[in-house]
Design a protein that fits this description.
This protein is mainly alpha-helical. Helix content is 47%, strand content 0%. It has a domain of 35 residues. The protein contains two helices and no strands. The mean pLDDT is 86.
Length: 58
């Protein structure tokens, strides 16, 4: 892995490209509206925990 070994206290590592894809999908599903910072964090955290995109409330 580039940058050295993963610290032992990290249970999960999400690639930046995958996090970016999560945010792109979130934006695409909302007529290209970029998520707010708190929406972006929630979407990426959901994906990391569930290996699925955050469901929409609307």
């Amino acid at each position: 892995m580039e940058g050295g070994p993963i610290p032992a206290n990290l249970a999960y590592v999400l690639e930046v490209s995958l996090a970016a894809e999560v945010l792109e999908v979130r934006s695409d599903c909302r007529a290209k509206r970029a998520p707010s910072p708190s929406e972006a964090v929630a979407a990426v955290e959901w994906y990391a925990d569930h290996d699925a995109y955050l469901p929409f409330d609307d």
